Amino acid sequence: MRIACLQFNPQLGNIAHNLRRADTIISRAGARGIDLLILPEMAFSGYKFGSVNEINSHLEPTAAGPSTVWARSIARRLGCYIALGYPEHCAHPPSSPSGPMSRYNSAVLVSPGGDVLVNYRKHFLFSTDESWAEEGPDGFFSGDLPDGLGRLAMGICMDLNPRRFEAPFEKYEFAHHILDSKADIAVMPMAWLTSQPAESLVAQAQVPDADTLAYWIQRLQPILDKGGQGQSGETIFVACNRTGTERNACYAGTSAVVGVSKGNAKIYGHLGRGTEDLLVCDVPGPGRNQATE
């Protein structure tokens, strides 16, 4: 199975530029034979909005805005599944107790034929999300991919952490979701911050943020304890992060594809903290495009 992560540096609020940038990276990389392509959280809007008023003009209707239109077009062109994050507004009937509109930090999953399969709403909100978004009410996602690609679990960034940083660290909510749903693959669009100085994104652009990568794996401890669900007891974990800076935020990059099994985490590939590129990894699995060039 061939999995790809598109890591780049979106400009806040500049959707047209960000769409063009993603297209350029895909064209430059070739992107042949991919089964599943992941993009970051809020990939084309940027992430660091501070209020409802600020983000309102960038909200997209449920699985129908520019992010989903792009995903459907590229999925058909590449013949692959695509998951990416976007800021969602969902209109309600006038009589709804939720009011006229809900806002979510969401991710959409699109089929190779361009059909929308999933619209997932971030379940655990980061403080930035809480300034404008509601918590997704339906929990983390899991479901079977067609074409024999296995069972997929999906979360978004903060979903990997303890809820609100208030739940016990050892609760491992998302990792237990992966185990309970018997997922072969877990994907997470991210806008994950780094504690490293912004200068490191340039000075060490090709070097992954080792602390970030180690933490992601640490948050999968229940799978390391019990083993995964895929071939040879392995679950494939895919973290697609963004890079760059946004206002006072500095992002960790380091997008990675990791095979997690009992007592072992195998890194199939990763990007540096400051690179804009397409990471492509071949992993064990029933993918339609088996390591062919």
TrEMBL record:
Name the UniProt record assigns to this protein: Carbon-nitrogen hydrolase
Domain CN hydrolase: 1-285
Gene3D superfamilies linked to this entry: Carbon-nitrogen hydrolase
Keywords (A to Z) from UniProt: Hydrolase
Species, as recorded: Tuber magnatum (white Piedmont truffle)
Taxonomic superkingdom: Eukaryota
Signal peptide: none
Swiss-Prot/TrEMBL GO biological process terms: protein catabolic process
InterPro entries linked to this entry: C-N_Hydrolase, C-N_Hydrolase_sf, Nta1
Transmembrane segments: none
Molecular function GO terms recorded: protein-N-terminal asparagine amidohydrolase activity; protein-N-terminal glutamine amidohydrolase activity
